[in-house]
Amino acid sequence: MSWPALFEAELVRLGVEPARARQLADETGAQAGEHAADPAQFFGPAHLYARHLVTELQAPAPAPRYAEGPVLLSLTGVTKRYRRRTVFHGVDLTVRGGEVAAIVGANGCGKSTLLRVCAGLARPDGGSVRRTRRVGYVPQDGGTADWLTPEEHFTLFGAVAGMVPRRARSTGDHLAARLAWRPARGQRAQQLSGGTRQKLNLVLGELHAPDLLLLDEPYQGFDQGTYLDFWRQVFTWRDAGRAVVVVTHLLHDLQNVDHVLDLGAHA
After folding, report:
1. Side-chain half-sphere exposure of 145, counting CA atoms within 13 A
2. 78 with 111: CB under 8 angstroms?
3. Which of 82-96, 220-234, 244-258 has the highest mean pLDDT?
4. How many of the other CB atoms lie within 10 Å of CB of 69?
5. d(CA 20, CA 161)
6. H helices of the chain, where?
7. Using an 8 Å Cβ cutoff, are 108 and 135 in contact?
8. How many Å apart are CA 247 and CA 101, to the nearest integer?
9. Which residues contact 158 (CB under 8 A, 6 or more apart)?
10. What is the pLDDT of residues 219-245, one digit of tens each?
11. Which helix or strand (DSSP H or E) is residue 72 part of?
């Protein structure tokens, strides 16, 4: 029996609904495929990974690190439709300062759309959204201009936040260094690798020191070292009392978060 089939069978044995088990098996296989890896080597034995995933999805949220932290994002009964199709419905999520939340689910279930709703870039068709005023949003694609250098991005985004050019550039360089990146002077964004361009997106999302960071699969193109740097930065944000929401398709990321929103359950 193949690894995905063993994984699916173990999920069902552990009480996951068959349709949801098939969805998770397909999604997990796709994740390994994106990394050109054998699932057994990427995730380990199928039965152990299935038990780990079920434990993570069903475990109650740990006590907040900042029990008195303010609510920086609150979704209540949020629904989104495109024409006659319901993308998701009845989504509830509360994230306080000092907490990290992950949004997971199969491709096409609306994870990026929900994050845009959280950011105020898309309107829900039902329910309510309350968020802090200072929000940093990092899209999965786009967000940068091909013809601008990183330094010019820092200056432009800083100006929007009321930062003088020198401070914006120095802040951008400092934040880039945390991701083991030193922007080259005169190099345009279109000349950056995919992973480096995503580092630029992350720096721009944090440049104005937001209270709430919304990150849409922000580690695309990262190598393993940069991926670990990214999560260390997330922990730094959490320790500083910020709220972080991460859209992820890497299920092993769930061990790093305080809340998990499985959007597939709201289709």
Report:
1. 11
2. no
3. 82-96
4. 16
5. 43
6. 3-13, 18-34, 39-43, 46-58, 111-119, 150-160, 165-178, 194-206, 224-239
7. no
8. 9
9. 164, 165, 167, 168, 169, 171, 172, 207, 208
10. 877 776 677 788 888 888 999 999 999
11. strand 71-82
Longest dimension (CA), the chain: 61
Q: Do 249 and 27 meet the contact criterion of CB atoms below 8 Å apart?
A: yes
**Residues 6 or more apart in contact with residue 144 via CB below 8 angstroms:** 153, 189, 197, 200, 201, 204
Q: Which of 207, 204, 170, 210 lies closest to 189, judged by CA? A: 204
Show the tokens assigned to 197: 């361009």
Tokens for 220? 């695309």
User: Secondary structure of 201-229 in the HEC alphabet?
Assistant: HHHHHHCCCCCEEEEECCCCCCCHHHHHH
Provide CATH 3.40.50.300 ranges for the chain. 137-256
Q: Report the length, in residues, of the chain.
A: 267
The single-letter code of the amino acid at 153 is H
Q: Model confidence at 173, in pLDDT bands (50, 70, 90)?
A: very high
Residue 21 burial by Cβ neighbours in a 10 Å radius (0-12, 13-18, 19+): buried
Please give the CATH architecture assigned to the domain spanning 137-256: 3-Layer(aba) Sandwich (3.40)
pTM of the model: 0.76
